[in-house]
Every structure is written in structure tokens, then in C-alpha cells.
């Protein structure tokens, strides 16, 4: 089959698989909404690939998918931080206003 004959979801899953199973993994890999265009039944397989890749790379996954979150938890993902909006400010669920990361903005 040619790439043009595959669905967007199939192509996306194949590319994610190649990136997550790379023989030369990066120190940090950020996946922004990797569930986009994927069938919900693929979430456990994607979560397993992400957890496998986390053995050699620091992984940051940004998602809105409850199915992917559930699959990541079941696959043994180490940490999870839920963000929410409070009066226009993005906050980390479970942390108070003084418990967030310390930011040091450089001078311009």
C-alpha cells in the first residue's frame, strides 16, 4: 500500500511508533495530543509505546483524551499533572499558589 491509501489515523500511528521506537532516542520527547485522529482502541497500544520510550527519554505528553490518560495509568506512567484555568491563569491541580515551580524571567 502507498501512504496515500492509508487513513490519517493509521499514518499518524505509524509515525508515532517510529518516533517512540527510535534506536537513537532524544533526551526529551514532547507529544502534543498524540491521540488526534487515532481510534480509541489504539490508546492502550500508544500508552505502552510511550511508557516503553520513557525508559530512555524523558516524556511529556499533553492530552485531552481520558482514554489515553486511563491507558497511560494502566501502563505504568510515572507522573501526571492536571492543569486547569482559574480566573484566566493556568494552574496545576493539587498545588497551592505558593507550591508551583519557581520562575525566573531573564532581563531583556
What's the gist of this structure?
Helix content is 31%, strand content 17%.
Question: What descriptors fit this protein?
Answer:
108 residues; 4 strands; alpha+beta; two-stranded parallel ribbon; 17% strand
Task: Explain what this protein looks like in three dimensions.
The chain contains three helices and four strands; from the N terminus they run αβαβαββ. It starts with 7 loop residues before the first helix and ends in a 16-residue tail after the last strand. The protein is globular, with a radius of gyration of 17 Å. α1 runs parallel beside α2 and α2 (43-53) packs across α3. It is 31% helix and 17% strand. With 108 residues, the chain is an alpha+beta fold. The strands form two sheets. Strands 1-2 form a two-stranded parallel sheet. A two-stranded antiparallel sheet has the order 3-4. A hairpin with a 2-residue loop joins β3 (83-86) and β4.
N-end to C-end Cα span: 53 Å
Question: β content, as a range?
Answer: 15-25%
Q: How would a crystallographer describe the biggest sheet?
A: 2 strands, parallel
- Whole-number mean pLDDT: 87
Q: By helix and strand content, what is the structural category?
A: alpha+beta
Residue share in helix: 25-40%
Q: What sort of overall outline do the alpha carbons produce when their principal axes are compared?
A: globular
Radius of gyration from CA coordinates: 17 Å
Annotation, overall tally of beta strands: 4
